Amino acid sequence: MLFNLPDHATLYQALLDRNESYDGQAYVCVSSTGIFCRLTCPARKPKRENCTFYASVGECIEAGFRACKRCHPLAPMAESDPAISALLALLDERPEYRFSERDISRLGLDASTIRRSFKRQFGMTFLEMARQRRLRGGFETMATGGKVIEAQLDAGFSSPSAFRTAFAALLGTAPGSLAQNPLLFAGWVSTPLGDMITVSSRTHLHLLEFTDRKGLPRELAKLRALAKGSLGIGSTAPAEQIKSELAAYFAGTSARFETPLAYTGSPFAQSVWDTLRLIPAGTTKSYSDIAREIDRPTATRAVARANGANQIALVVPCHRVIGADGSLTGYGGGLWRKQKLLEIERQYTPQPERQTP
Question: Against a cut of 0.85, is the pTM above it?
């Protein structure tokens, strides 16, 4: 896991030195290329701020990064299991193909065994790995001005209806229903904890959520209604700014988020979110702490509801709120992410001021 590794500076120096002692123990994900590598990779070294380090290839893949074709970080896993090797080679040859368990069986492989093998080695199944690569490709095609049919083909969907269904499951609307000159723009950003969706106007960020959050379709529907259906895909200044700030956050260089935000919620909820933003990285508070700070000491449950309704993850740090007994309590992005975020933020823990003699 990321927080069990040495600090970012140590790992980046190991990358520059091609330190073999970290081979198989740490991997670098490069945000500017979408590639992950061994630290011994002979390729040109990326900038420090574009690097995030992980302890396993599964975490790199789950975060949306593709394996480098120069240092082949998947090779040891593939070499240890010929079936994994064959399927990874097949995925490289046909990244756009919609694989199924029937395809696996046609290769003479047992689908359940393959599921367990990939889950053990990479933290996800082969079919999940293939689907993630395809759908992200289609989204990015549309984000750069490509037509729906081009996005469908890039995503490996032979059926327009299947692509519409998969796309709608993500954004809550079919690709053909997206506005051409929208008020709000959806974007895609990869992080070490998984891919996220952004929704922004030309001036403010309205949403930042992990793509697998169960409440995402409901949040997107609310924003589409506020924009009278004027939602499209594309890049904006706030979306680019939050990408840069997220990269710095995960790289361990800054926990400051200054992207302009646009809240969608009641005045009470907004007061809770503003208070959450005052919690320093590396510290936590309880729901009752927040209730007291907004002068509503009996509104603990209402604070919890507002916390859960937050749709700008990480920037409005609802993950820093825990139960009065110290338990993690709920988190829309998953408790495993909440745990990792709190562990990551230990490097940002405020240090006590030194007393001068």
Answer: no
